[in-house]
Amino acid sequence: MEMEMSVEMHEGLERLTAAAAMLETAVARLAGISMSAESSALTELEEKLAAAEARIAELAARGAGFGRKTLQAKGGSRGEGLEGAIDGALTSLSLEQRIAVKSELMRSGLLG
Questions:
Q1: Over 70: is that where the pLDDT of 44 sits?
Q2: Do 8 and 43 have their domain in common?
Q3: How far apart are CA 66 and CA 34, in angstroms?
Q4: What is the largest CA-CA distance in the chain?
Q5: Using an 8 Å Cβ cutoff, are 102 and 111 in contact?
Q6: Rounded to whole angstroms, how far apart are CA atoms 103 and 99?
Q7: 101: buried, middle or exposed (CB in 10 Å: 19+, 13-18, 0-12)?
């Protein structure tokens, strides 16, 4: 009885050893496949990055000459300059007259 039990345990141990060896082989094969997939994905990303950097450099070189050639207006926007000109033109009027003229200009939409 003990002999049969020993033989069965030995056979079971051999089967487990064979299964472990097969699993190790499969893991090694899958690791190789995984590494090749990762390296190909990494290579693809590096190529895309290099292409994007080249495109950025090209656009930067092309756009260097297209900058602003004049200075901005002192008042900022056109509306502020117009309002300043209107204030200057209305200085000879009394306060009530200036208010009346400005309210009419605002009502007509000529002044913001």
A1: yes
A2: yes
A3: 48
A4: 127
A5: yes
A6: 6
A7: middle
Least confident of 8-12, 49-53, 83-87: 83-87
Residues 6 or more apart in contact with residue 97 via CB below 8 angstroms: 90
In this structure, are 50 and 10 located in the same domain?
yes
Residues 6+ apart with CB under 8 A from 75: 81, 84
Domain check: are 8 and 53 in the same one? yes
DSSP code for 72: P
Considering the domain architecture, whether residues 11 and 53 belong to the same structural domain is answered as yes
Q: Identify the pLDDT of residue 80.
A: 58
Please state the domain count of the chain: 2
3-class secondary structure, 79: helix
Same domain, 8 and 55: yes
- Residue 60 in this model has a pLDDT that exceeds 70: yes
Q: Among residues 72, 95, 93, 75, which one has the least CA distance to residue 85?
A: 75
**Are both 62 and 83 inside the same structural domain?**
no
Name the residue range of residue 103's domain. Answer: 78-108
